[in-house]
């Protein structure tokens, strides 16, 4: 089974962000780090153990942090500390 790529992570100009840090946590917590990776040249990332029902994601680039909090419905909500 191939791990699906997730993304892309884009900047405010709509360009992909390469090298953003992506942290995978147990759902609804930022204390139980499961894995860490970075975005590729096209802004995509993946984790073999990623499961929307079990995990939350924090994406860090520069001073910005984005949170992907998955819910039981298709898709996700993206919130940011820096708008």
Blueprint of the fold:
Elements: E1 21-26, E2 33-38, E3 55-61, E4 64-70, E5 76-80
Antiparallel strand pairs: 1-2, 1-3, 3-4, 4-5
What does this structure look like?
By secondary structure, the chain is mostly beta strands. It has one domain. It contains no helices and 5 strands. Strands 2-1-3-4-5 form a 5-stranded antiparallel β-sheet, with no helix packed on it. Strand 3 and strand 4 form a beta hairpin. The N and C termini lie far apart (37 Å).
Shape by Cα distribution: globular
Summarize model confidence as the mean pLDDT: 76
The major beta sheet can be summarized as: 5 strands, antiparallel
- The domain count comes to 1
Distance between the termini: 37 Å
SS strand fraction: 35-45%
**How are the strands of the biggest sheet laid out side by side?**
2-1-3-4-5
* Helical proportion, percent range: under 10%
Rg calculated over all Cα atoms:
12 Å
The tally of strands reads: 5
Task: Briefly say what this structure is.
This protein is mostly beta strands and 83 residues long.
């Amino acid at each position: 089974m191939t791990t699906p790529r997730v993304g892309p992570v884009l900047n405010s100009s709509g360009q992909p962000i390469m090298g953003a840090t992506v942290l995978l946590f147990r759902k609804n917590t930022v204390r139980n780090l499961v894995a860490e990776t970075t975005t590729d040249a096209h802004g995509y990332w993946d984790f073999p153990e990623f499961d929307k029902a079990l995990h939350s994601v924090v994406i860090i680039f520069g001073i910005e942090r984005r949170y992907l909090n998955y819910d039981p419905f298709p898709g996700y909500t993206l919130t940011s500390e820096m708008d």
